[in-house]
Amino acid sequence: MQIVSIHRVDRPGSQRYRGCYPHALSFQQRGLLAFVAGLFVCFGSNAASMADELANEVKYREQLLPLLRTYCYDCHGAEDGEGGVSLEADDTAAKLVQGRDHWMRALAQVRLGTMPPADSEVMDPASRTRMIELIDELANAIDCVQNPNAGKVTLRRLNRAEYRNTIRDLVGVDYAPADDFPGDDVGYGFDNIGDVLSLPPLLMEKYLDAAETIMGEAIYTPPPPELFELERSPATLIGADKFNVRSHLVMSSNGTVTLQFDAPFSGTYTLVLSLSGDQGGDEPVRVEVTDGRRAIPVEVKESEPTDKTVAFRLGKGTRQIDISFLNDYYVKDKIDRNLHVHHVKVSGVEQRSQFVSSPDLPVTHRVLLFETPGNDDEFVDAAKAVLGRFASRAYRRPIGKSELGRLVDLASQVHENGGSFEESMQVAMQAVLVSPYFLFRVERPRKPGPDGVMPLINQYELATRISYFLWSSMPDDELLRMAHRGQLRDRRMLLEKVGRMIKSPKASRFVDNFASQWLQLRNLEIVQPDTRIYRGFDDEVREAMRVETLMFFSEVMRNNLPVTELLSANFTYMNETLAKFYGINDVRGNEFRKVSLTGTPRGGLLTHASVLTVTSNPTRTSPVKRGKWILDNLLNTPPPPAPPNIPELEKGKLVGSLRERMEQHRSNPACAACHNMMDPLGFALENFDAVGRWRTRDGRDEIDASGSMPDGTSFDGINGLRDLLTSQRSEQFVRCLAEKMLIYALGRGTEYYDKCAMDKITADVRAHDYKFAYLIAAIIQSDPFQKQGYREP
């Protein structure tokens, strides 16, 4: 059925205009569509979806199409679209959805104010706002009621920071992998994105080495038994002088000689005597060897030197062993029974218990091996208890019976081969640390139910998502208990737990990992301002800049302040070094403390030297970098890449002040499209030099920090820019922060179907005065965080 026909008319002043009559849909047609839509609603969910599609078609025809014809089709017609972009070809709401990619690029240009171009029809602010809303709504049209896709997260390996934190919380050992492990790739601005966290063979080798090192430090095992060896000639035996000593000792009558030595440890000592005998009579030569407590009889039947071995359990210290000839027999000129001692050797092996017990054991040892067997019969039960708890915490879920059985079998093999209980646990725990269930955040694959609804992830998986979101580490025992009791979806209990988590010292990891990457503070380590121009900047100041921003972010988070305070707060954190660098008095000492900024031009993130330094060049400020940083990180409207073959500002033949040179640069139409949006934002920060210090002049030039956006909005300096962002653009900033945080929390980039979740998150935060904890809670309670969706082609 053809619902509406579009007529081509010519409008005065337009070279080519594909227009329509003001009311393309008649009153009767609109009423019919409304009636049909109402009928569809009555037929249930599928019909409701069809009704939505019809409503979108009406919205496209009646509201968006007139705007497109007025402002877009002159350049982006069906056949000759500039830049290869033909918007007119998508002549229905359904085609708008199918061409989402280029519509999103068009939307970005409209948001930036770079489209329509300056030489086209002037778009008033109300029309621009309405076009943005309509394109966003129609191109991203999804049913937020009927099972929106929650998105699929790629099986995600722990990154280096998460690995280190998890090892510390699980084992109690601070193992720093930074120097050994390959660096983590970055996606969507963060290094915890599943799609880019690969597992190269080299890294697997590093994991094996790390597991051995970590468990060797965590669990004490005694060193290998000490060995002792001593060789003596028979002549050195005490009492040997009473007998005939030639090349060897000849005991021609009953008597005793004594071996004396210092035993270095308690253990088993083996005495090897090389003996022979002159036989005679009806019995062989008989000898007795004793340590004073136990006597061992030895018969010597051989007439040639033969080794006789006896063993004693001796304590540490000076010890003596008596060697006695017992049955001398002599008949003159006929029989002479004698004992010959040719050589004496003693060796010892330190005797140690297989079960270590000492009050001096490391804390990690006592915590991990909370149960030890008293004897071999108790080994398996103790191993099950120890390994069951360790592996359950490492895998972030209860360990299965068969999984535990394999670990206990491994430990038993080590024990059967002579290993101690501690050594057996070391090996089994090393196996846990190289298991995929530890190295990866594994979630059970799920399929939609009969109604198409994607099921929720289980409570243990949810606990893992929460803990790695806020702590970059494994769940603590409280989170695991809440998961076991099914309490993590109780809003009241969740909010209470989130409140405790963001006040925990572990929350500093969220600050270090999320805030540092969101604000690009990690680049502060590599920027090199020219210290001949910017005197006073050094590594101490560099570090103070970083600490200031992270402590400021932490203050807003831990005290549950509105997230808009990140832009407008009139306080910060400083020590004496940073305060002097800023030119602020009355701050003494190396300790950072909260400092009021009342009466100064500073306030909020935009005036932090860390941000201002990473968005500057070594020898001058960069309004382009600063403007782009604001668009990227505060407004989530990144400009497109610069066109090819456009010279950099320094390389072009430009003269005058920085502002004048930028204006010359923008005279190139290819540059103006993006710079008209970036430059005004960057120039608002020109009163801050390339290392973030306040100034009123740039060399001989007076600073002009005024700016005007393509939509006509004007402002002057940092105060004007801050007012713009916290009033007219505050909702955009909150949505930007929410989306950046959702990307970090999920470990994947956001897609068009996340719009439903983003709308709900933003609305929930708005309803709670933009408080930080409610932003975190809203993300945790969102469908993408709570469910496992699917990856769309």
Automatic annotation (TrEMBL):
Residues 72-119 form the Cytochrome C Planctomycete-type domain. Residues 270-354 form the Carbohydrate binding module xylan-binding domain. Residues 156-219 form the DUF1587 domain. Residues 602-698 form the DUF1588 domain. Residues 711-785 form the DUF1585 domain. Pfam families: CBM60, PSCyt1, PSCyt3, PSD2, PSD3, PSD4, PSD5. Coiled coil: none annotated. Residues 383-443 form the DUF1595 domain. Residues 457-584 form the DUF1592 domain. InterPro entries: CBM60_xylan-bd, Cyt_c_Planctomycete-type, DUF1585, DUF1587, DUF1588, DUF1592, DUF1595. It comes from the Bacteria. This is Similar to filamin.
